[in-house]
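Bench notes, bay 3.
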Amino acid sequence: MSKENLKQFTFFTGIGYPLLAIKFIANHKQLWQYLIIPIIINICVGITTYIFLLNPSLKLFDSFTNNIIISVDNAINQLPEWSNILIAILLFISQILKVILFLILLIIIGFIIVQFGSIIGSPWYGKLSEKLEILYTGKLEIVEVNIIQEILRAILFELKKLLLIIVISVPLFLLNFIPAMGNLISLVGGITLTCTIICLDFFDATLERKRLHFREKLKFVWGKLPTTAGFGLICLTLISIPLLNLIIIPLCVSAGTLLVCDKLKRS
C-alpha cells in the first residue's frame, strides 16, 4: 500500500484536518467574509444555551448535593464522633460528581450549539463550503434540485438524525442499569453516537451538494474510519470548550469539507 493510501486510513489524519483548515483559510482571505455571520449566529445561540441550561443545571445539582449532605449530617449527629469522616467522604464524592456533570454539560451544550447553529447558519456554511471546495479542488460538484426539494431534504435530514439519536440512545441508556460493564459500554456508545452526528453535520455541506441519501452519508462516515473517528473526536473536543465553541463551528465545517474532498478524490 502506498503512503498516500495509508494516510487516508489513519486516525491522526482526521485529527489534523482542523489545523489544515486553519492554514487553508489563512492563505485564502476571500473566505473570511463567509465566517463573520455564522460566528455571530453561534455566539447568540451559545449565550442563550449557557444561560438557559448551564447555570440552572449547576444550581439544581448544588441544591441536590446540599440536601443530601444536610440529611446525612443530621443522621451522623446521632452516631459516634468518628463517623464525621463520612461527611468528608460525601463532600469529596459530591465534588467529583459535580466535575463529571460539568464536563457532560459542556459536551451537551457544545452539541446543542452545533445543532442549532448549523441549522440557522446553513446558508452561509453552504456558501463557505462551496468556495472552499472550488479553491481546494479547482471545481465544484453539485447536483441541482429545485428549492422545494432542497427544503424537504434538509428537513428529512434533521428528522433522520433525530430518529438515529433516539433509536440508539434508548438502548444505551438501558445499559446503565447493568453494573460495571453496562456503564462503560453506554459511555463508549454515547461518544460514538455523538461523533457520528458531528461528522454528519460537518460533512453535510459537501455531501448534500452530491444529493446523497441519508444512508449514503452515514455509510461515508462509517466507511472512512478511522479517519472520521479522529475528526469526530477532535471536533467534539473543540465544541466542548467554552467560548471557543462559539467561533469554532465554521472551522469544523471547513475541515469537514477538506476531508470529504480528499476522500472522494481518493475513493
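Next record in the batch:
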Amino acid sequence: MFDPLQKSRFGGRPVRLFRFQLQGAVWWFAQADRDLDPPGGATYRAAAIECDDIRQTNEPAKDKLKIRVAYLRDPNASPADIPSTQDFGDLWHPYIPSDAVQVMCLEWMYGDSDPPKLRWSGYVAQPEFTDVQLELTCIPSTAIGEAKAQGPRNQRACWKVPYSTGLRGCNLVAADFEVPGTITAIDGLTVTVPEFAAPEFPLLQGEFRWPRTITAHNGDIEIIERRTITKVDGAAVTLLYGGLGLAAAVEVATLPTCPGTWDACAARRDDPQNHFGGCVYKPVKSPYDGGESMSWG
C-alpha cells in the first residue's frame, strides 16, 4: 500500500504507463524521466509520450484516445537525438502493420507496492506523422464488434467468412488449404513464387503472408505480415501494398479465399449442404419488379 501522501488529491505522484502489443511483440513505456519497474515484472522505459484525458461515456466514438510519441522522420538525424520510441514508431513507417496494435493505458503511484491499475484499453485505429511526432488515434475495446446486423444475410452468395470461427465463420481449417512457397523474384508489388503457378483453388483476393523479425521490449520477435492478392499472373502475384522483409529466398504462403458460391463450397467440403450460407433458390430479380409472378418455384 502507498503512503498518505499518495492518497492526497494534490500530493499524489501518479505516473502514466503504456503497453502496446502487436502479435507476440510488446512495448512498455512510461511518461517519466527514468525507467520504472513497478510490480508486475515489466520494465517501462522512459519516453516522450503523452495522451489525452481518458473519457468513458455511453458513446464509444467520444471515447477515442490520442497518444503522441516522439518520432523523427529525418533519415539524417543524429543518433543522439533518436528517441526511445523510434523503433516502436517504425511499426507504421513506411508501411502500416497488417494486424491491429493493442493498447493499454495504466496508472501507477510512484513507489507503490501494488501493480499498475488499468485505466483504458483499445486498439490503434489511425497513425498520423509530423516531422518530429507520431500521433496514434486509438479506439476503445468496447467499440469492437458492435456493428449492427451481424447475422445471416438473405442473399444468393454465402455470407460466411472463410477460415473464421466467429459468429459469421465458415470454420474451414486454414492449414488444409495453405499453399507454401519461396520467393524467387520481386518487382515492385509483384512477387514471383513458382509454387503459386498451379494452385488447387484461385489465389486472387486471397491472403499472402510472410514472416519477419522485429525488435520489441520483450526481445526479437517473429511476426507474420499479411497482404491481399490483387492480381495473379501465373506464378507472379501482386500485393495490395508493400512491406518490409520481402526478399528473394524468403519462405511465404498464400491462403486462397472462397468466392461464396455453391460450387466453391462443394469443392472445399464433402457436405456443402451443412455449411453453405447462401440462398441457392433466391431469384436474381425481385418478383416485385416488372409485374412478374410472385411464385418463386
